[in-house]
Design brief:
heterodimer, A: alpha/beta, Rossmann fold, 3 domains, 6-stranded mixed sheet, B: alpha/beta, 5-stranded parallel sheet, 4-stranded parallel sheet, 18 helices, 13 strands, 45% helix, globular
């Protein structure tokens, strides 16, 4: 590969420093557009059951999300009921004269139509710019309807990707009532999203629940991954908050600790044995369940020992090129880097977008503190014009990078075609297997085995041509 | 916007339709060798991506860009940022860059028209600003806005008319998820009648075709939801006569026959049209004789139709005449007066008195289904889930959003379209009767 194609080559901490100084943020306005504040706020709010997210704006803002919810993630995959995504359908006249009156009526109408447990007014660009006072309307409306009404300022231009979910989680805290009692042995899982819809990998959530169950821990609520308003109200009765995705849950955990004194178990994602142990003990120790947890860890470790041995044998001395550019995102890539290191491989994470680093700064800093500091390579293709999609340029660059390393193995998306074994960690993995915890160890071992044993099987020319054009 | 009173009275909607920005993007992305620049916050880029998929653009060829407006641009204006972003795109090998403005920049008063004029000398491609904020209305209003801009900015009139020629309008304003096949069928029919298509507004349309629009003798709208404004303008400005006006689109035997005959009459190809009808009807009958579609078991079954007007209105006759069902609920996404007039005409002619909901949203649809309790619903995935608990045994998914995307484009228009729709019903019928219970265990 031409070295001109490499824009950055160093460690995560070096990249972070460059991002913090503004050096690595792309100057091209037209490149890479992640979600806006409205979208991430919506994701969180939609994760509460029987809620009406009432979008105070034109119809474009809610429809992308509601289409996904209705056609793929919600009704079809998880078998949950069709929930509304309501909208005030602001038109030109509302933009000129204001939409507050319409909004007040809309809240009353939404209550009458859908009988929800909660209505959350989400403002978007239009209502934000014209200055509709959504908070006052929420307060006024709440006196006239049968459910709680909250307002969230979530204008798309109003903040970054991170601010949407942080503000939404902060808002949810208003629902949390003073605890009547502390319920021993209970936790909240923080940082899940798309509740009635997809919680990233549903199967990972099942593994988390299983491990907690083995330790004798009960989950009060998965916030906001399909929890009810009642569960949120009781959220302060738990002994501890535990992270699901450290990045999404971090702010909520910290504020609940600060404001309500509920300890927050800060650990990374439970990928591999070491991180899984840390995740379990992070919960068990403050709850006085360390002995029980160690017993479970020992028993489970014994069961997966052959898989651990295999992973050591298969990965030791290899270079693991890691690229998670689809939904699961950069935090998973860094968790994977930590996992492969545990099994003796050298991790090289490629194309973690600087925007991503910027938006996830607190989580990245936390991971660095825990010793996650892999080699990072960013290529030119990452900064190209247009949407952040699979591109021929980044594929060519990936292939060239892989050729530079001895004995490489690729962890990432099966839509990549590097000249080495490919471990298929695509979001929609066809076997619906967890990657977290002990079951995750078994499954990742199986995926590594498939990658290594069948590395010489030809890849589909058709699919490659579809993605990147003719060779 | 021409919304019904009923729609205006609703303050809280769970809408089917996207906003004007999305409709404008759908239209702009139908122009080949172009790129689209969304002058918007980055969230609107997702609406552009959706439009990109709706036009089946090839991501190896078509680029979408965004100015990614933030608070600063909303407070101080985003024109400088727009200029900078256009400069970033100046090396793109394209014929046109469509600059679409979203809600934010329109409210704060960014003048994208002036920016495009100022920037034009700096770039080799045409800059075409389309002011299409979401609050201007539904996606159909956005399609009209974009068509208006494109025609007014690009059309060149040299006064020469191409004999027997037509301009096709708004093929993409159609809820059939594989609407490209409808368009192909129309083009095939016109070709067989010796009619030249001067331009398609828009799908894979070169810029030169849009420039050439005034040379068309006639226009043909392929939607009941959008495009009329463009046809009226073309008629007034260039004397382009609209054909098949006020006629349901060619879904089902009668509609197809009427539509083909109208075209045949206009383009002096009556014999050809009659032959197409004769052969088409014979083919459909012969195929049904061999395949025995299950549709025949639905005699007088109460049905509901929930769709856009483009598919929904002609479906009423098809469901009544070909399938012998009884439509008891017709819920249409749109509510323009032309849509109302057409549906009411069809219902009167057919002697039907279903519950009719114009400008429906998900709530109204569910209420309608609760009132009517049909046995079969023609609609989308939304209706499948909205029907839960209402005792609706069959939901035939014919319009977007659909659970399963079809890789092969299938027409609803014309004679093969009839068979395609029969097939949708057939599959639903079979799935309904597939037992989920094992009656006995195997011995081995």
């Amino acid at each position: 590969m031409d070295d001109d194609s490499i824009v950055f080559h160093g460690t995560l901490s070096q990249l972070l420093a460059k991002v913090e100084s503004g050096e690595m943020i792309p100057k091209l306005q037209a490149s890479h557009a992640p979600m806006c504040k409205f979208f991430t706020a919506y994701y969180v709010i939609n994760g509460i059951r029987h809620v009406v997210p009432l979008v105070h704006g034109p119809t474009g803002c809610p429809l992308y999300m509601s289409d996904i919810v209705r056609t793929r993630e919600c009704c079809e995959e998880r078998g949950v009921p069709l929930e509304p995504t309501a909208c005030t359908t602001l038109d030109e006249s509302n933009v000129i004269y204001g939409g507050e009156g319409k909004l007040l009526e809309a809240v009353k109408e939404a209550d009458k139509k859908y009988h929800p447990d909660l209505i959350v007014i989400l403002s978007c660009c239009c209502s934000g710019i014209i200055g509709d006072d959504v908070e006052s309307i929420a307060r006024e409306a709440e006196e006239q309807v049968n459910c709680r009404v909250l307002a969230l300022r979530s204008e798309g231009f109003g903040g970054d990707f991170r601010s949407g979910y942080e503000d939404a989680f902060k808002l949810i805290m208003e629902l949390m009532e003073p605890p009547k009692k502390k319920v021993k042995g209970t936790v909240n899982i923080l940082g899940a999203r798309w509740g009635p819809t997809l919680t990233e990998f549903n199967e990972d959530m099942e593994e988390v629940k299983r491990l907690l169950g083995e330790m004798g821990v009960t989950i009060n609520a998965v916030i906001a991954g399909g929890c009810t308003v009642d569960e949120i109200k009781r959220a302060r009765e738990v002994e501890l908050n535990a992270s699901w995705c450290y990045d999404w849950g971090q702010k909520l955990g910290d504020i609940m600790q600060e404001r309500f004194g509920i300890p927050y178990s800060k650990t990374g994602q439970p990928y591999g044995l070491r991180a899984t142990k840390e995740w379990m003990l992070g919960i068990a120790r403050p709850m006085g369940l360390e002995d029980k947890a160690l017993e479970v860890i020992e028993r489970e470790t014994e069961q997966v020992q052959p898989y651990l041995d295999y992973l050591h044998e298969a990965l030791n001395g290899k270079t693991a090129i890691i690229e998670i550019s689809e939904f699961p995102g950069p935090i998973r890539a860094l968790s994977l880097a930590r996992m492969v290191e545990e099994f003796g491989a050298h991790p090289v994470v490629i194309n973690v977008h600087p925007y991503t680093i910027k938006e996830r700064m607190p989580s990245i800093k936390f991971l660095l503190e825990t010793g996650v500091n892999p080699e990072i390579i960013l290529t030119k293709g990452l900064f190209r014009l247009g949407s952040f999609r699979s591109s021929k340029e980044t594929e060519d660059e990936l292939e060239a990078i892989v050729r530079k390393y001895e004995d490489p193995i690729f962890f990432g998306n099966s839509a990549r075609y590097p000249p080495c074994p490919v471990v298929n960690l695509t979001l929609l993995n066809p076997a619906f297997q967890p990657q977290y915890g002990f079951r995750g160890i078994k499954n990742i071992a199986a995926l590594v085995r498939q990658a290594l044993e069948y590395k010489d099987l030809p890849r589909s020319k058709l699919l490659r041509g579809m993605l990147y054009g003719p060779k | 916007m021409d919304q019904s009173k009923q729609s205006r009275d609703d303050k809280c909607n769970d809408p089917y339709l996207r906003c004007a920005f999305n409709g404008a993007a759908q239209t702009a992305l139908g122009v080949s060798r172009s790129a689209l620049l969304a002058h918007s916050p980055q969230g609107c880029e997702y609406l552009v991506n959706n439009a990109f998929a709706w036009q089946e653009c090839d991501y190896m060829e078509t680029m979408t860009l965004c100015t990614k407006l933030c608070v600063d641009e909303i407070v101080h204006g985003g024109e400088d940022l727009l200029m900078r972003t256009i400069r970033e795109a100046k090396d793109l090998k394209i014929d046109a860059l469509f600059v679409l403005s979203a809600c934010g920049p329109e409210i704060v008063g960014d003048d994208i028209v002036a920016v495009c004029e100022d920037m034009q000398p700096e770039v080799d491609f045409k800059l075409i600003p389309i002011q299409s904020p979401g609050f201007k209305g539904s996606q159909y209003d956005g399609i009209d806005i974009a068509l208006d801009t494109m025609i007014k900015r690009l059309a060149n009139d040299d006064g020469e008319k191409i004999p027997n020629s037509v301009c096709l309008i708004a093929p993409h304003a159609n809820a059939n998820p594989t609407w490209m096949a409808d368009l192909e069928w129309v083009k095939q029919v016109l070709s067989e009648m010796g009619v030249k298509v001067v331009a398609t507004l828009s799908h894979k349309t070169p810029l030169s075709d849009i420039e050439n629009v005034p040379s068309a003798e006639a226009s043909l709208i392929l939607s009941h939801d959008a495009g009329q404004r463009a046809a009226d303008y073309l008629s007034a400005k260039y004397g382009i006569e609209q054909v098949c006006k006020g006629m349901p689109l060619p879904i089902g035997m009668t509609n197809t026959q009427r539509w083909l005959n109208a075209l045949g009459e206009r383009f002096d190809a009556q014999k050809k049209a009659e032959k197409m009808v004769e052969e088409g009807e014979r083919m459909v009958t012969a195929t049904c004789r061999r395949k025995w579609p299950m549709a025949r078991f639905f005699y007088r079954t109460p049905a509901a139709i929930v769709a856009d007007a483009t598919v929904g209105i002609p479906l009423v006759r098809f469901v009544t005449e070909e399938m012998e069902m009884t439509p008891e609920l017709v819920a249409l996404y749109s509510s323009r007066s032309s849509v109302r007039d057409m549906l009411e005409g069809e219902l009167k002619e057919l002697g039907l008195k279903p519950n009719v909901v114009y400008g429906t949203d998900v709530y109204k649809t569910r209420r309608g289904l609760m009132d009517v309790r049909p046995k079969i619903v023609f609609g989308s995935t939304i209706e499948r889930h909205a029907s839960e608990g209402l005792g609706v045994p069959y939901t035939v998914e014919v319009v977007r959003p659909m659970r399963q995307f079809r890789l092969i484009n299938r027409a609803y228009f014309g004679y093969t379209g009839i068979l395609n729709l029969f097939e949708c019903v057939q599959n639903e019928w079979v799935l309904r009767w597939r037992s989920k219970d094992k009656r006995y265990e195997a011995k081995w």
